[in-house]
Protein 1
Amino acid sequence: MLTDISVLFQIAGIGIILALIHTILKQMGKEEIAQFATLVGFIIVLYIVINGLSDLFNQIKSVFLF
Amino acid sequence: MKWLGAVLLIIASTCIGMYISNRFEKRPKHIRQLQSALQLLEAEITYSQSPLQMAFRTIANQLPFPVSQFFHLLSEDMKTAETDFTILWNKRAEELAELASYRKNEVEILKQFGSSLGQHDFIQQQKQIRLALTHLERELEDARDEHHKYSKLARSLGVLLGVFIVLLLV
């Protein structure tokens, strides 16, 4: 099953921190920067997820093609 | 070892946030010091009618650190140097800008005021001082606004960005 759980915690932590940064920036009236920070965080998380997915596909390839 | 690095990173970014918020906090204070320095200079010029070097020394004795050093060094310079007064003033003003947390605007006001110093009679000089004081008042308002807005923001953002980077690297 899922052996390496730490990536989940990492993504959850990034989400929490980004939510905090977003709220603080929004409170101080820097809406654009808040949006931008959220976007950057989203891209980072997407990168992590895509890395995991590429691992998965490689494994599938190695099961069926060889 | 890994955790030690993480803790160090968080501490470092917290310190950077503190430093930035400190700059925001100190700017209104330093501008106010400059204002009181100019007021003292006005009193020295109009009432005591002392020469600039003496006036600078009295001002340096009455004010706290960054501004006092500026006037102290200026009075020392005027004793020895043979160059133009404006050049001396500009040089020391740039040094002061590095010591205190002034922006370009304040330095520009200070330089403009320095170029007018010693060129006119009492009344004109008094007008120049009043003008510089009004400019500084505007900057002070600005600095206060920014202080309220950004000093807390910088502090919390420093901590949060540290935690964020640590999470990325774990």
Note: Helices of chain B lie at 2-48, 52-62, 65-80, 85-99, 104-116, 122-169.
Protein 2
Amino acid sequence: MRHLLSTRDLSRDSAVELLDVAEDMADVQLREVKRLPTLRGKTVVNLFFEDSTRTRISFEAAAKRLSADVITFSAKGSSVSKGESLKDTAQTLAAIGADAVVIRHHASGAPQVLAQSGWIDAGIINAGDGTHEHPTQALLDAFTIRRRLHGAASRGRALDGVRVTIVGDVLHSRVARSNVWLLDTLGAEVSLVAPPTLLPVDTDGWPASVGYDLDDAVDAAPDAIMMLRIQQERMDGGFFPNSREYSRAWGLDPERFARLRPDTIVMHPGPMNRGLEISAAAADSMQSSVLEQVANGVSVRMAALYLLLSGERPSSSEREVA
Amino acid sequence: MVSQPFLIRGVSLPDGSRADLVLDDGVIAEIGSGLSAAGAAVVDADGLIALPGLVDLHTHLREPGYEQSETVLTGTRAAAAGGFTAVFAMANTSPVADTAGVVEQELALGEAAGYATVQPIGAVTIGLKGERLAELGAMARSRAQVRVFSDDGFCVFDPLLMRRALEYVKAFDGVIAQHAQEPRLTVGAQMNEGALSGELGLTGWPAVAEEAIIARDVLLAEHVGSRLHICHVSTAGSVEVIRWAKARGIAVTAEVTPHHLLLTEDLAASYDARFKVNPPLRSREDVEAVRAALADGTIDIVATDHAPHPIEAKEVEWDAAANGMVGLESALSVVHASVVEDGLLDWSDVARVLSSAPARIGRLRGQGQELAVGSPAELTLYDPAASREFGTGDLAGRSVNSPYLGRTLPGRVMATFHNGYATVLDGRVEEVGA
Amino acid sequence: MARIVLTDADMQRALTRISHEILESNRGASDLLILGIPTRGTVLARRIAAIIQRIEPDAPAALAGSLDVTMYRDDLGRTRTRTPSPTDIPTSIDGRTVVLVDDVLFSGRTIRAAFDALSDLGRARAVRLAVLVDRGHRDFPIRADFVGKNLPSATSERINVHLREVDDDDFVSIEGGEA
């Protein structure tokens, strides 16, 4: 794997392979010695142009458990202009000798620009770009669903026929996009449920069904239901009248939660707005996988870093976007 | 500058006929066959097409204020390289061209450079802020004789202000060139709104934001009986609205850029900001619609919207990148590739949409005239059989933000004559130095 | 052309002998753990464990396991990406005698990685090494305690180990090399 920019670039086999490697990494997390020497001598840079303590810590833990040297660079609030800082920072990291760059950026496509630019030769992992993609989040979600459904027999399996409903701000959600492409690749059936204002204007080409009614979606008894976070700026942006109305129509309240199948997995990428898109009753239930998702995040990111940094590196002349 | 006579041998005229041309004393002195002229420089034009000097109604020359991107000198060199003999310079300079002083300075810079006629466009509103009318009359009566007014880059959004501007310029046969973009519908817009913008996570620029303003403005123009020009029409819906307006007899004219004739939105999937432009590249259907509209006359002209930017404004993430592409050097080849090769336009149509019609809309004298004895010696010679991989070596301005780099384009401008002298010969820009 | 150097019967005899040798050197099967290195080492470890359990009915049921060493290799950046296999340790290694099992012993690089992997799992009392084929050309000071067949080979030759659990049949062949 040269870069991990989008879940669209993953074939079914390579996605399953990554999830299988993550299983091995998860096994290591149960041992007394949680560290592997695999990436000794490699330098992983966490380049965060946008705050995200959770994702940053998860990648840091993943890199450290593989014995990589980890440098965290928080570029937010830097005085240079937005554009200059990406190029200048990339060239600085290249000079330092980064082998992998984990980038979180407010602009959609910034990781791809970095990967194509020639400013730096390192492998790039997209840790969330604007409203575009967040591939490792989707991979950890798929990993979590697979483990819940198949337990110790997860290895080698995809998610054929698994019905996943994603609810909320699909329009601005990189988590939703990465999940739609990945879940489809793995054979799952995806439905999106959102107020019409929070759906992209044209989703005909998306491998997902689209609806506006959460009650219908709940009654369809999905295998997993993923509640997306509502950002404060959407509430102020006139996408819906107010949080009360949103919560009433698109929140997983106790009543809707009670109507779900007892084994429906309740997911949330975090951080949650309890009482808005998800009730405490749902978030803290046995069906909730929120904390598993966090733990699995480390395993999946270890797998991604391993696959990115092992194997022969193509020279820059034969470089291609993976 | 002393004007040397030129004898152009065996050139094809736009109507397809073959002739020799003699240029002398700033005019076309003779047209015929087997001509000779003592002391004239001979240009072997076998296989070349002669077109009246191209006129661009929509150029950003960036001077004063943004000389790191372009100057009047470098921009008019780019114009000459592309076969242009006149450019209309947009008003979004710094200071904004909203007073007689600035437009006269622009005019003087053009005269000093000597590569093309620079006809300033005046701002509609002070500082392009869309609040109060600029001194339109003073600019019209200045030495620059401004007839085209535009806040290009911004839409004249306030309907009352737009109405007043349309009415006011009637006094001097002016025209308002509208940048049709509903601002509220395009907050933070990054690319054409559609399936692809949703997938790429880039904020959409919906077609309706252009079409709604055009619909409003043609109705306003009809109501007050004024001339209206629509900049860079980019959508099939806009074409429909303009077609309807023209059928009603409304005095509206419209332009399309070369890039909207050739390129589509899918280029944005690379997140390569060379393809970021405003209005954005649209869908294949939109491209087909603007091509058909140019062929049937609904769209009157091609204008480049030449928008130079320094490398640092483009070598960045998409959101942070500047809008715009350079287009003067490539315009004729792109028109050739998009509408001539498939037979939608012939070379006399090209002479119309890239020369006579823009000169007429902009009320620019001495440009866009037929190639006839006595006409000003403003013409360009184009080799339609050439083909080249377009590269930075084909660019003559200060900036290299061309979307065509690395792409094979047909044709090549071999010579350009402005005011009787050569600004381009043998495909190379000449040093003219006024 | 490939030449058979161990038939299925040869292989069976070699594994039986190795099993006896293990029991003899360990003085029985108590505190014994047979860990194979994936993929074929794991298969061989299971076979050896089954033979031991037949010979010594008191041998522990959880005798065989699998130790993946991919993450401990020192050549990850030099070859194509290796997909790791699961590690399955049936019981704690602390205080036990661990017999590592692999199909072919060559440079010793895999076994070196296995030592690191093992030490992250606990403290074995002793570590032994059993291999089906020792082909020589060691790059590390490592030697096998139990060898099915010593097979001097040229580095350009290729040793193929077929095991019916993964390859449908049992044999070892050698090919290539002679120009």
Note: Residues 315-322 of chain A have pLDDT under 50 and may be disordered.
Protein 3
Amino acid sequence: MTTEILIAGFGGQGVLFAGKFLAYKALLENKQLSWLPSYGPEMRGGTANCSVIISDEPVGSPIVSKPDVLIVMNLPSLDKYEDAVVPGGKIFVDSTLIERKVNRTDVDVYYIPATKLANDIEAPTLANMIMIGKVIKETGVVPYDNIDKALDKVVSARKAALKEINFKALDTGYNN
Amino acid sequence: MAIVFEKPKSLTDAPLHYCPGCTHGIIHRLVAQAIDELGIEGRTIGVAPVGCAVMAYNYFSCDMVEAAHGRAPAVATGLKRSLPENIIFTYQGDGDLASIGMAETVHSATRNENITIIFVNNAIYGMTGGQMAPTSLPGQVTQTSPYGRDVTTAGFPIRICELLSTLDGPEYIERVAVNNVKNIKQAQKAIKKAFENQVNGKGFSLIEVVSSCPTNWGMTPDDALRWIDEKMIPYYPLGVYKDRSAKEGE
Amino acid sequence: MAEKVLMKGNEAIAEAAIRAGCLHYFGYPITPQTELAAYMAKRMPKIEGGVFLQAESEIAAINMVYGVASTGKRVMTSSSSPGVSLKQEGISYIAGADLPALIVNVQRGGPGLGGIQPSQSDYFQATKGGGHGDYHLIVLTPASVQEMADLTGLAFDLADKYRMPAMLLADGTMGQMMEPVELPETAPEMIEKPWAVTGTQMKRKHNIINSLYLVPDELEKMNFERYERYKQVEANETRYEEYMMDDAEICVVAFGIAARVSRNAVVEARKQGIKAGLIRPITIWPFPKDAIAKAATHCKEIISVELSMGQMIEDIALSAECKVPVTLCNRAGGMIPSPDQVFDAIKKAAGGNE
């Protein structure tokens, strides 16, 4: 079983961080994985995306060109990647920031008002983690058990408060 | 029988290849003498340049490294960072240090690398047969300035001591000459001090030695030494340009 | 067994180098290898004897490497394509003075300033010398973050063993991606380097590190001796990986990121009943000539997949000795071939002679 995930949005929305978190969780589950960011000046304020592949087999190409799972945090990303998703794949849309609906009818679509929910829990920068919570719930690509252990890997020990709020965001998404 | 004169131990027995009347031999001797007097030969590593002194690695009996043109201060930086207890010196000409290696010179100085640089300024590229150097004087005739150095197209000579002494980094900068006994005595002191500074961990020391090139200047050795007094020294005044420890001691 | 950690390829090189006993790093900022320098800047000051120095230029950096290498210690620099061009002078001197050192090139598109996206267009530069004169580097090409670490350690060992510079030729993708990696926990054994300049201590004749031989007889002798050593490297150190090659009719040759993409295409081809296989050179100098020659005896076409306008294809064609057609499947300028593109090339090759 191999799941190819593409996460895309504006720079600063935590797209790379969200991918990194998924990658660490997969590592803790002894999965094979790769994480590949877009890089360069475009990261600053422009569009950012990252490819995450989680598999039971060694990962071949780390570049996701036909995602099984697409997570989009802005409209340009939905426009750009909607058609690339494999038939039967899943698209997760931050519906606070993306007003239009997905055109594809051969994929499962999940609309999550992630940015609004993030504001509601007073974690305005964590819409990314709300999306990830929902992705874990709907795809099962990694189990939700011991999710805080993966947070330990991406949030430094000195920032315990941050860990708590990340956990809250994940939970909000998972239970949405 | 009392020995009144002998070759410094830090020089090998290899015969020098320099032209008759060239002052490189004197400067080699002054460097070797400083190494001998400080008793540091066993822990000294020299870096030879590209230029007339390229084969200096055959003449000094300490360990030697031959560097690419202009890169001696970078090589010396690597040596010193690897072996901080060793004494590292470079021996470079004007084309090497002030033209192609200017960046390495300036940056090793500003980092205050604890190394010693012997900079031989004879206002010409000797090894390649007498081309214009960054330190060739205005109007000086060379193979590549056959009508004399025209400052409107070739720019002005670079005064390295003055330039480097504007930096906060370096410890010691002095210009000396080797065209008469008095100047050689002063050069001897300066070169020894430049090594002593390194032994004492004080940092970057550069001694510019105003030197002659009778062959490529087209002069007799004697005339060349006079030309140093008449033309070179007025443009490149001798003296101490920076001595941080002395200043702090005031 | 050591715990697996997630690391970027660039960071894995840095940590593996430190664990291989490399305590001296000299570099100059350039995308996409910056994480490597940043990692060194953070770690080296915390290690006894560790040196990180941001040089004034790539030229200075490689000459600082020359200095440390002269003292017999393990030393490295890293850069990306335009910066590696600047280092060529120093690399030639390091090769000419028979010094071991590691140069990492995390390639980006060129020529000129080019771009910052991944490329393999420095293949010629890396494998054919790069600088002036007759010389080679041992060139290792990692295709995973694990290999970024493993081949770093190997590069230092081989450089020391054969007294020659080694290059790790990666690309922007390999540098930027994260994968689980297991790092070595034991320090390697270091070999004696009696040729090093460390000060005579007045106990031996002076050592000279040099590449100048004004008498042509002597210079020729040095070159001949060096090439004898290169022959040993070719005989002992050629490395490659084969995948599904036993019964392959179509042979894909690719290294680094191109090999990762090609593997997907080979898997797809096999699913569709096409007997495709992959040869992945791990060293591109020495080049796995014998593996290619063997493939040429039982495959009907060899496809070179490259992120360049076709450079490795020349070595493949030489190795295949005109026995089978050798074709190119490529993208350039920072673009990466897709598995589909490689699969289509395989399909075309398979159908071509039916």
Note: The longest strand of chain C covers residues 101-107.
Protein 4
Amino acid sequence: MLSQWGFVLILSAIAVIIPVAAIVLGHFLGPRRPDPVKNETYESGVETIGDTWVQFRAQYYLIGLIFLIFDVEVIFLFPIAVAYADLSFFSVIAAATFVLILILGLFLEWRKGALEWN
Amino acid sequence: MNWSDALIQFQYDLGAPQELSWLIEGITYFIGAFILANAALVLALLLIWITRKVVSRIQDRIGPNRVGRYGLFQTVADAVKLLSKEDITPSTADKVSYLIAPVLAVMGVLMALAVIPFGAGLVGADLNVGVLYLVALGSIGIMAALMAGWGSNNKYALLAGFRVVAQLLSYEIPMVLAMLAPVLLVGTMSMQGISQAQSLYLGPINLGLGWFIFLLPGAFLIYFISALAEAEQTPFDLLEAESELIAGFHIEYSGMKFAMFFLAQFLNSFFLGAIAVVLFLGGWQGPFAGQIPLLGPIYFLAKTFFVYVVIQWVKGTFPRVRVDQMMSFAWKVLVPLVLALILAQMIIMKLPTPMWLNYILVLVANLAVVVAVLNILGKYFQREQVRSKRAFEPKSLIGVMQPARPASGD
């Protein structure tokens, strides 16, 4: 099994080398005529006003938090799914209760308006 | 027989010393990984050509037909053109994340190749956590898009970067939960194990038609819709909505860096289709695939290209959704439905009733989900149709229009 991960390691190295090689090749093959106007931020021809990294909607944080909760839940569900055949009926009920609590959580978020996007 | 074992044996037969087994194994894996990654690059050229041909046929055009036969070399010409473009880095950009983002985007996609089984012994690494590995790789793509949006120091790019996070995170949940359904059925996360479980024996002959889509159509539908969103394909291509965000998070990228994002996107939609094939459409299974091993990869590629063409078909047919509709569709329709589906499947499969009855109950639950999703989508598109008719063809609605009521009060 460890040697299987060796394949993944080698593939990840190749998967990094390919884009890096392509970008380096493109860098040297293409023309290089830098120009202060060309290197400016593109904004449909208008000069940029102010900083780009400004405050943004808090909604994105909420989505991120809800995602985190569900992603952790999924991580718990995968081992249950793999060991499912060996589980007794009552441990499945326990796992189902766990999913049910999360469904209730989703409905609570829904009621609280965390899923509204306006 | 596994391809790596065969290759290692071949090297020993050539006279390689036994004590250097780690080196032999390394060389074998390097050859495999090198061929796989480069085949993916060639595949990307083909995929872009297919997309352009399919979409242009839908739009009643011919599409690329000048370079090479049927325009097959158009993408190669485009790649050469991109190679000769100037490599511009905006002076205000955050250099580190700006440069790492395209590399990460391609890396996250290419690494998915490791666990995709092309045939009976043809899988790069048959990891016992294959499905989880693919889920983990999905996050690298999100990272890359966010880093590109943030690093470009451009307001359009930053907006698109936030949208990437919101959209991809939202659709990741239903996708992963739908991927859980076959895992729950088979009891393994190994992609090869899931492929093998979808055989159907008629006596001693493997028909290879025990595909999970016949048992889990609801999970497949939810996976497919979420995969469209994950692949940033048209009903959900808000990340690069040209009319709103110019080009999305890769607006500041030019030349080969832009090409890397382009490559990653096309390969990503192909691999999401390949995962759908492995999990729901039987992988390399098919009639006589057990007797003739060569048929396995042929079946697999045929199915994957079919799914890819369907994705392009959807792309050419459906209008883009609004960002709030997209978010509420993920959280208010797909997530509750897929959670209920997983819950139902978990409980039904443990019921003390006979196994065939359990399977029928799971199928009924899945069909209910299919009906619910299609119903909601149908209602949505009907509403959109009426709205666009009001906007563009007021005459067609004259029959249902009410005469204006006289204003009260004056």
Note: Residues 2-112 of chain A form a domain with the Methane Monooxygenase Hydroxylase; Chain G, domain 1 fold (CATH 1.20.58.1610).
